[in-house]
Specification:
The protein has about 270 residues and is α+β, with helices and mostly antiparallel strands. The chain contains eight helices and nine strands.
Length: about 270
């Protein structure tokens, strides 16, 4: 991921304005399954992140001609809009360069530990309403003793649903879930409706605590609504996973820390 990658994404959108195109990040844990070459993905599809509004407008000094803002989204996203792709790529390159070296210990963001790089970006480009758009999703792949799979990664309490990396498609709001869930959810559905002990069935024991939460929230669960309830609850888990992958919390403190980074881009 570099300024040239942003230029390639916007070149593609200039030729195919009805498509979005994005790139997986370039580091393990926060990247896609392929890190040996540029891993672009695109298509004619409207993801939830695209329709999410800008909740706070921002101005980057020297780039007043580029509309910018923080997107109302579980992850930490800066949206740039401009008719001039060169100007937008110049600003995106500056944001990336700043983020690569950015450390804020209070926010638990470290650019490097033991020489390893942690900060990168998942970018998404599109053409909308007569202007080019570039969403820059800030990523960090640091690990800890408590979270060896990644701190900004699905945490263990949600591994029953998903423990794999969050890549480009999921960043934009579409969950790519493990195929095992299809069988497991069918078994779990029957167990809930028949009031069976979920922990006693090794095929779905990992879902026992989650099943209790579902039953406590939905006392009216029955054969007619069970499938929808389980599907909706999976969606809720996925939204919480996206929040965990956001480098700045969706709290007032987290928003202030996000602005601290924005102000460091010079």
């Amino acid at each position: 991921i570099d300024k040239a990658a942003f230029e390639k994404l916007l070149d593609f959108v200039a030729s195919f304005p009805h498509y979005f195109v994005g790139s997986n990040a370039d580091l393990p844990i926060v990247g896609g399954s392929i890190l040996s070459h540029e891993h672009f993905q695109g298509g004619h599809y409207t993801f939830a992140m695209e329709t999410a509004p800008v909740e706070k407008e921002i101005v980057f000094k020297g780039f007043e001609d580029v509309t910018a803002g923080i997107v109302k989204w579980p992850m930490s996203v800066i949206r740039l809009k401009c008719e001039d792709t060169d100007r937008m790529c110049a600003l995106a390159g500056k944001i990336l360069a700043t983020w690569r070296d950015y450390t804020d210990e209070e926010a638990f963001i470290y650019a490097y530990t033991d020489g390893a790089i942690h900060n990168t970006i998942t970018p998404v480009a599109r053409y909308r309403d007569g202007k080019y758009e570039l969403d820059l999703v800030l990523r960090n792949n640091i690990t800890t003793e408590e979270y060896p799979d990644g701190f900004y990664h699905p945490h263990p309490e949600y591994h029953n649903i998903k423990k794999e990396n969050i890549g480009l498609i999921e960043v934009m709001g579409l969950a790519v879930l493990p195929s095992r869930l299809k069988t497991e959810m069918a078994i779990l559905r029957d167990a809930i409706l028949e009031n069976k002990d979920v922990k006693a069935d090794e095929r779905i024991a990992k879902h026992a605590d989650w099943a209790e939460v579902i039953k406590s929230k939905h006392s009216d669960i029955n054969a007619q609504n069970c499938d929808k309830i389980i599907r909706d609850e999976i969606g809720i888990v996925f939204s919480k996973i996206l929040e965990q992958c956001g480098v700045f919390d969706r709290t007032e403190e987290g928003k202030a820390q996000f602005m601290k980074f924005i102000q460091s881009v010079k």
